Amino acid sequence: MNLELSEEQSAVRQLAKDFVAREIAPHVIEWDRAESVDRSIVKKLGEVGFLGLTVDEEYGGSGGDHLAYCLVTEELGRGDSSVRGIVSVSLGLVAKTIAYWGSEEQKRQWLPGLTSGELVGCFGLTEPGTGSDAGNLSTKAVRDGGDYVINGSKMFITNGTWADVVLLFARTNDAPGHKGVSAFLVPTDTPGLSRRTIHGKLGLRGQATAELALEDVRVPASAMMAPEGKGFSVAMSALAKGRMSVAAGCVGIAQAALDAAVTYATEREQFGKAIAGHQLVQELISDIAVDVDAARLLTWRVADLIDRGQPFTTESSKAKLFASEAAVRAANNALQVFGGYGYIDEYPAGKLLRDARVMTLYEGTSQIQKLVIGRALTGVSAF
Ligand code: CAA
C-alpha cells in the first residue's frame, strides 16, 4: 500500500478542507444549538461532487476511489459529524448500495438525484426492537398483486426526516432470521409513511434523526432491490463499506481534537508558562496524536483493499472499532487539555466528545465489531 497521495487525492482533500472552512466551520456552534444543520448544505455537498464519490459518472457520480472518499469523509468529520453523517448515509449506505445492487432502472431513477444533492437517502434497517440483532427485524412486506404492502417501524434513522427515499428492509417470507428479509426503495412521500424527529440526543444534534412508521405503505414490486430474500446481504454489504466511512469520520473527530488541543495548549498559560510546556499536557496531546495516526492507517487500509478488489469486511470492522473508540478517547483528552473551558460549547472539545460517543454505537456497536472480528479469526459464530 502506497501511503503517498496521488495528485487527484490531494486535490480532493484540499477541496474538502476549503469546503469545511467556508461552508461548515462558521456555523458549527449555531447548528448544534439549533439542533439542525442548514438543509442547503446538501445541495452544496452535491455541487462539489462529495455526494457522488466512487459512483460512475454515467449515473451522475463524480468517480474517484475509496481513499478519496475517506479523505473527504475525514475532513467533513473534522468539520461537523452531523454533516459527515449526511454523506455517509445518503451516499455511503444508499447511493453506493443502489450502484452495486440496483437494476438499471433503479440506478437511473435514483442515482442522479442522490449524487447531485437534489435528493436525500436514508437507510431503514434498525427497528425499535432490533438494533444489533438486525436479522430479526419484524417490518413486513406482503405481496398483493403487482405490489407489496409494507407495515412496521424503523428507529434512529439518520437523514430520516429529510430523506426522499428510504432503502428499507422488510420481511417478505416466513424463513427464519435474515433469510426472509428483502430490500426495497421506498419514496418517502408514499401514503402511509410518516416520520417523527428524535430530539434530545447527546450528540449529532444537527442531524435529522427520525423514527419512521409504515402503515399499509404500497409500493410496486419493481421497488424491490436485489432478489427476494437477499435483503440482508444488501444490508451487510452496505454496512461493510459504511463502517469504513464511519471510521474515516472518527479520524476527522480525533484530528479536530488534536488540532484544538495543540492550539489551546500553546496559548493558555498556567504556573507562568504555556501549558504545552507541562509534561502531563504533552502526554494528553501525544496520546491523541497516536490515536489519530493509528485510526487513519487502519481506515486507509480498508479503502486500499476495496480499491484493489480484495476482501475487506473484517478490516472494516477493525477500523470502525478502533477509530470510534479512539475518537472518544481523543475528544476526552482534548477536553482535559481545555480544562473548565472544555465544558462549554464555545470551545470545540465538548461537541467532539458528544458526537464521538455515538460512533461506538451506530453501524454496529463496538461489541458487534469484536464478534465479527472474533468469528473471522476463529471460524466460530457467537451470534
Ligand atoms: N456482502 C454481501 N453479503 C454479505 C456480507 C457482505 N459484506 N456480509 C454478510 N453477507 C451475507 C451472508 O453471506 C449471509 O447471506 P446468506 O444467508 O445468503 O449466506 C447473510 O448476509 C448474513 O450474514 P451473516 O451470517 O454474517 O449474518 P449474521 O446474521 O451472523 O449477522 C451481525 C449478525 C453481524 C450481528 C449483524 O446482524 C450485524 O451486523 N448487526 C449489527 C447491525 C448494524 O450494524 N446496524 C446498523 C444500523 S444502520 C445505522 O446505524 C445507519 C444509520 O442511520 C447511521
Automatic annotation (TrEMBL):
Keyword Membrane: no
Gene3D superfamilies named in the record: Acyl-CoA dehydrogenase/oxidase, N-terminal domain, Butyryl-CoA Dehydrogenase, subunit A, domain 2, Butyryl-CoA Dehydrogenase, subunit A, domain 3
InterPro entries, sorted: Acyl-CoA_DH_CS, Acyl-CoA_Oxase/DH_mid-dom, Acyl-CoA_Oxase/DH_mid-dom_sf, AcylCo_DH-like_C, AcylCo_DH/oxidase_C, AcylCoA_DH/ox_N, AcylCoA_DH/ox_N_sf, AcylCoA_DH/oxidase_NM_dom_sf
Domain Acyl-CoA oxidase/dehydrogenase middle span(s) in chain numbering: 122-217
Annotated Acyl-CoA dehydrogenase/oxidase N-terminal domain residues: 6-118
Ranges for domain Acyl-CoA dehydrogenase/oxidase C-terminal: 229-377
Signal peptide: none
Record's keyword terms, sorted: FAD, Flavoprotein, Oxidoreductase
Source domain of life: Bacteria
SUPFAM superfamilies: Acyl-CoA dehydrogenase C-terminal domain-like, Acyl-CoA dehydrogenase NM domain-like
Key word Oxidoreductase present: yes
Pfam family, one: Acyl-CoA_dh_1
Cofactors, names only: FAD
Family according to the record: Belongs to the acyl-CoA dehydrogenase family.
Name of protein: Acyl-CoA dehydrogenase family protein
Organism annotation: Streptomyces durmitorensis
Organism classification: Bacteria, Bacillati, Actinomycetota, Actinomycetes, Kitasatosporales
